Give the backbone structure.
Amino acid sequence: MDLTILLLCVVTFVIVGYFYAKKQYSYWADRGIPYVKPKFLIGNLGGVGSSKHISEKLQDIYRELKGKEVFGGLFFLTDPTSIALDLDFLRNILVKDFQYFHDRGVYINERDDPLSGHLFSLYGQKWKIMRAKLSPTFTSGKMKMMHSTIIAVAKEFEKVLEPFAAKQEQIEMKEFLARFTTDVIGSCAFGIECNSLKEPDTEFRRVGKKVFEFTGLGLAKQFFLQIFPKIAKALRMEITDRDVTHFFMKLLRDTIDYREKNNVKRNDFLSLMIQLKNTGKLEGDNVDLGKITFEELAAQTFVFFVAGFETSSSTMAFSLYELALNQDIQDHVREEINSVLERHGGEFTYDACMELKYLERVIQETLRKYPIVDNLFRVATNDYQVPGTNHVLKKGMSVIVPVYAIQRDPEIYPNPEIFDPDRFTEENIKNRHPYAWLPFGEGPRVCVGMRFGLMQTRVGLATIINKYRINVTQKTPIPMSFSPKFAFLSPEGGMWLKMEKI
């Protein structure tokens, strides 16, 4: 009898689940919105063992739906999700009608996972208040203050690369660059010498890797947190690995205690955060920004670290990859670097780095072709009447801005697979839609650390290109393919290149 009841419950559950999924999958058709037919229970983006990165899946959807409407439909498992297909529409989402789309819909649990409460993920008023407090810490003046620290790490980086260049030995460049940016961020964010350039297995490097690689149960957990956030919070689930949380919280407590007891002051991000924690003001500014708690300090410092090292190291790796494939462009960059250094006594001063305009175009073109934040996500906080249409995006509806797909759209960027820094001359930029390049997002939630990221990328690339010629090897990924197990765009099998001393 008990077995019969159990079987009946199972059958009922399956039948109800089947009809629920069928009903969900009729969502876009019922509203007359073009959409891509999903796989049953998997949707358009899922699939175990997929060989495609999510950015490439969204590119396929974008190409299939573009031109049919300003936005289209797809399904995340069984949940209907919208995708922006028109640049004016996404401008409304990111800027003009930002009041409807100020949240990213990322799982947060500040009670059990304090590091999750950072600026990237915060919602509504909490985000607005924290953004106002953090923006003054990323001004050009504050960036100039940290420049000398980046240069010091770059000089160590040059020493580490030298023996490999002398032997013209191929190296996995992305790992070396990640060690460079880990040391830069460790120094600029925490005032700590991570030494990952000399010791690749340091705790900082181990923790950094752990944050971004999703496999097996970890990936399943991420899906669960995003689909069932209320249940996850009730179960006190954490998005940050406990080892990572313990490492960062202890590191910050110990560092802050030491600085406060010994009156230590440094030109780094943590020093600015301590000022906000203790006084609510930044030295030299009279504006009362409001105090922050230790937990808030920890979350903002954490995201500065994890976002700063991975995005910049990947951008540099893809830049060097394209320069190895395009030696004429590499020569042009090197000539500019030599010319600028001559004017600045052979030193990569802050002003010298700002004068590297062609290198800046190379970085912009790299970020077009390989946007590290390859898609933007927003959630409607109220029902939204889509301008110029009869369609309404219901409260709670997610909107995906497929940055990777847009920036490889041949109607926006002719011959998008060709690497051409001249796409970013002032004239060409003016002739394009202002929302055709979105590697840092746009609008009020544009990346607050953009200046810092570009600065360390510029210094890292200039340091390498000034001393070494970059070449491809038999292991260089040609053509490029992306690993589906990483959150950001990352080359499958690594970025293998070799260097030759100039």
In short: The mean pLDDT is 89. The chain is about 50% helix and 5% strand.
